[in-house]
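Chapter summary example.
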Amino acid sequence: QVQLVESGGGLVQAGGSLRLSCAASGSIFRINVMGWYRQAPGKQRELVAAITSGDNTNYADSVKGRFTVSRDNAKNTVYLQMNSLKPEDTAVYYCNAQAITVEGLKWVESDHWGQGTQVTVSS
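The structure predicted for these 123 residues follows.
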């Protein structure tokens, strides 16, 4: 019952910026962690950035200083501000949420994924 919808991807020139958004909806009790993963052709999916409900953040070394993750808990939305983009940032970016939902009379924590949004950085 959790849906994640990403937006903001596109084509940008090296050195440019993009801002990704991911809005979660559904029967959510609490989202403990929201984050962004990316997957480039021929490579494994990797964590880009994550943020907890307490605004603790974690970044991949490759994006530190360039990307900023933030969230609006009231809106169940996470953002990824990407600056100084490089061609190696080209990938499909996926939103992820570790959410607690109610199934019957039980609380269940599980991962949920968005459909992905393409980010292409030209040289």
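To summarize the output: The chain has a mean pLDDT of 95.
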